[in-house]
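Ligand-bound model needed. NAP.
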Amino acid sequence: MAKRALITGITGQDGSYLAELLLSEGYQVFGVVRRSSSQHFERIGHIQDQLTLLSGDLMDEVSLINVLRECRPQEVYNLAAQSFVQTSWLQPVLTGETTALGVTRMLDAIRTVDPSIRFYQASSSEMFGRVKSVPQNEETDFYPRSPYGVAKVYGHWITVNYRESYQLHASSGILFNHESPRRGLEFVTRKVTHGVARIQAGLDTQLRLGNLDAQRDWGYAADYVKAMYLMLQRDEPTDYVIATGISHSVRELCEVAFGAAGLHWEDHVVLDPAFLRPAEVDHLIGDAAKAQQELGWRCEVDFYGLIEMMVAADIAALTT
Ligand code: NAP
Ligand code: G4F
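Prediction:
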């Protein structure tokens, strides 16, 4: 019998890569999708015939219980969230409902339907915020700097708490920024690579950005979903930092992305205060030694390979 896995957030960047990985491992894959007036399954269109999509929403616990009863998974990957940091200042309550309390709803649904289900929570390096030590690992204290970061801290600790209170096999992956050609256009890497492609095609001349000094530890999403899967194969649940261990600034991102298209970033990038944040996370860099040792996890694509891949994909999408 094939193992069954349920993914919330299957229409998102990570959900699409994780679904591909689990299918390749022989799983029967179910995904939670929320009702919308228009369908947007671009990231999973190529595998949709191999998936079973079920209607549900992290805002509605009954829908999660019904989904679990219908598909009876052995593993649940909770990737759904309001995941854009800037939006979390505009919609802090919605962000809390989804990104924080949504985790409790799913954990309670698991307790209700089948406490033997293994659970993965998509925690975030954004929880480290104004960092307490460099690099950040599983022992580093949290100091979130956005409503999103605060919500993720809640989601993280409720996962730990349900593991300790009810002996659930619940693990939390503290993932640093990870990107791909499937990244949403609002996030800075994709905004830049998509902007480069449009400028090269003569469709735009400028790219408006905020803080160029911010530094992130950027990895490749397809590498990172492997860590999620590996965490749920362990006998004992626990938490892992997933990161490359190398960080770059937004300015360096611009240099590499524009350079990959034969352009100079200074000719096109315009600073726009509209993209500055009320509170910034200045510098994130992760230490994934625990995941490397216990899971055997490694990242295969580095920052330069990642950005070149994204630029090439955006240029190809405009020319086909
Ligand atoms: P994403 O592309 O923004 O995808 C978010 C997913 O959540 C979408 O499928 C979205 O569905 C779904 N969703 C949002 N609200 C929902 C709700 N109320 N009920 C059910 N589904 C809902 O995010 P991602 O980059 O794949 O990230 C996956 C997870 O990892 C998120 O929890 C994110 O916060 C976390 N994370 C991401 C990173 C990163 O660098 N990518 C790093 C650390 C942690 P629709 O398609 O219907 O909008
Ligand atoms: O790409 P970003 O929007 O990602 P951010 O805020 O780091 O959050 C992402 O990574 C988190 C993991 O640490 C995830 F949990 C979260 O869900 C999301 O996937 O911004 C990166 C940096 C920021 O410092 C931002 O101020 O880029 C800076 N930036 C500069 N100009 C910009 C822009 N960010 C965006 N989105 N747009 C700009 O124009």
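The CA atoms of residues 177 and 218 lie 5 Å apart.
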